[in-house]
Every structure is written in C-alpha cells, then in structure tokens.
Amino acid sequence: MISIREVHISDAPRLADMYSYYVENTAVSFEYEAPTADEFVMRIKRTTEKYPYLVCVDDGKVVGYAYAGAYSTRQAYDWTATTSIYVDKEYRRKGIGTLLYNELEKRLKEQGIANLLAGVASCEDEDEYLTHDSSKFHLSKGYTQVAKYKTLRKDDCKRKIGLVGGTGPESTVMYYKKLNSEIDRLSEGKAMPDIAIESVNFRRAWDYVSNNKYDLLTDYLEEKINYLISGGAEVISLTAVTMHMVYDELSKRISYPLVSIPKAVSEAVVSAGITRVGLLGTVFTMEQDFMKKDLILEGVQVFVPNEKEREMIGKRIFEELEIGVVKESTLDELVTIINRMKESDGIEGIILGCTELPLILNSGNCPVRCFDAVDIHLKKLVSLAMK
Description:
By secondary structure, the protein is an alpha/beta fold. Helix content is 43%, strand content 16%. Strands 1-2-3-4-5 form a five-stranded mixed sheet. α1 (12-25) packs across α2 (37-48), α7 (214-230) crosses α8 (247-253) and α9 (261-271) packs across α14 (373-386). The protein starts with a strand and ends with a helix.
C-alpha cells in the first residue's frame, strides 16, 4: 500500500542511498559527490524548520521524497519556494512523483506559498546522463519554463570555476595561480581553466566577522556567489577558511553546492589515519567549531593553541601574512607552538586552517605532519573542474 507521510530523521540513510544514484550516474542533482546519511540528517533538520519534507512509502519502504526550500532570504520572496523531488530508480513512471508533488503543493498552499520554482537539468539531446524527463514532468504539472542558464564548456576542463576572493588578496592570487598551473599540467598543456573571481572588500568582510554581524556577512557572500552562478560558474568556493563560519547558512540559500574547505580537510586527515590533530588559523577559526565538526564526527580529536598563543597567531596572520609579509621570527614562533602541542597534546599532525599560513609553514619546516588546507582544497577543486 502506497502512502505519503512527513519525513523522519531515521529516513536519512534511505534517502541518501536513493539520492546517491542520481549524483553518481546522472547530471540532474547539481552535486558532484553524494552526501552521507549524516549530511542528510542536517539537510532534513534545516528544511523542516520552515518547509514540508515528504516521503512516499510502499509497503514500509521509502520509494521517493519531495521537499520545498527558500528561493531567497529576502522578505519580498517569503511567498515563493523552490521544490525538489527524487524517486527510487526502480519506482519511476509509477505515479510516485505525482502523488508526492500533489501533497507537497497542497501543504505549501496551506502555508501561504503563492509561487513555486523548480530548477531542473536539461539538454538539447538526451543521453545516458541527462534526459528530458524532469522537464516533461514539471510541464505536465502546470509549470512554465521562465529562464534558462547557459554554460560554456571546454573539452579538457569541463566546469568553470568560481571563486569568492579577496579574503585576503594573497590567498586569492595563490588560488588563481595554482589552479591554472595544476590543470595545465594535468591536461598536458591542452587546457587551462575558465575562472571567475568575485572579490570582496576584505575590510568590510572582516568587520562583519569581528563584530559578529554574521547575517550581513552571509548576505554579502551570497551576493557574490550568485554573481558567479549567473556567469556560468559550476565549481564554486570561498577562498578563506574563516568565511566558512557561515557556510551552513550559505548552503541553504544558494542553488549550487559549495566546495567546502573543512570537509575536504577532514577527509584528508581521516584518510591519513590521524586521530589527534592540531588546528592553526585565525582566532575565529581556532575558537569556533566550523573547522572542527567534520573531524569530530569522524572521531578525530582536535586541539588548538592556548589563549595567548591564539592571540599571537591571529595578530601575525592579520598584520603580516594577509599582506604578504613573511618573517623568520614568526616562523620560529609557530614552530615553537606546534612543538609544545606535540609534547603536551600528543598531536600527530597540524592543520594549516588559514589560507595564508602556507606562505610560511609547509611540510619542510613543520615538526609534525602538515595538512595544508589550501593544497587539499585546490586538489578538490581541480578534480571537480576536470570531472
């Protein structure tokens, strides 16, 4: 017997399993890597704070799901929502999608939502990765096509990279140079990437950070990311670890997934078998949880310098490294701190959790295994751009 009900947190593993097929075998999801069940739990919690999230059940088995989301956080769009739907590949063309959408639209109407928008992947000629099915389904439900994103592609570097730069200027230059040189190397001189950079006013962004104006910071970064999307960027990322303090909220607002620095670093640390790791970065990065939570979920213990050391590191980053000043005395201070953490905390590795720290620290001068957040993140961006 088929029925529709509200999602349960316990549904997350099943939803992640269904969704992974679309991420790994099609181009309809707009994601490059399938999220884990834990990530699905977070997505469910975020969505159900405001919008309906429904599942279709057939004899006790979840065979499809649909949910709504915010089109924009600006108040004028409070009566507009986006819709998404995924059906188990074995249950397609059996009316599951219609049942889910009918109930979703009913609940959204009761909630006062007046406009529904669906972003679907389509193409001129169908192939094994992309068909016209989603477009046909939405048209059959009364939706009207109102816009179309246009994307230019290159054969050897298939996806345009979009960077939110300027936080700070030195790391932005580093990202630009390394992305070009690495893709040129991997393509054997056949291609260099299309890169768009939206540079923020660093002083303005840092004022938002320093004064806990996180809503304004999120608005500012969202604006820059939307410019990148409008310009055809598909692999999109922030170029500063500290800006990831609003990553979760940004992810709710934008239509494309961001390539997360903390997640990429966590994967590298876990893959290396490290269980006790130190974290260096800005004061905000060291004291808040956004760089630590992925590691902690994987069972890795994360240690940071003491308060006096944190203040000194933050000062050196802001007053020296952000403007390209590299001093031998600062290197000595950092190495001393890492050695102390090695002895007192038993750290096996250190995360360079600020995009300027690789200007001064590297595997050649670091007393423990060095995890360069920039290098790890760049490899992820290159992989996705050439995928």
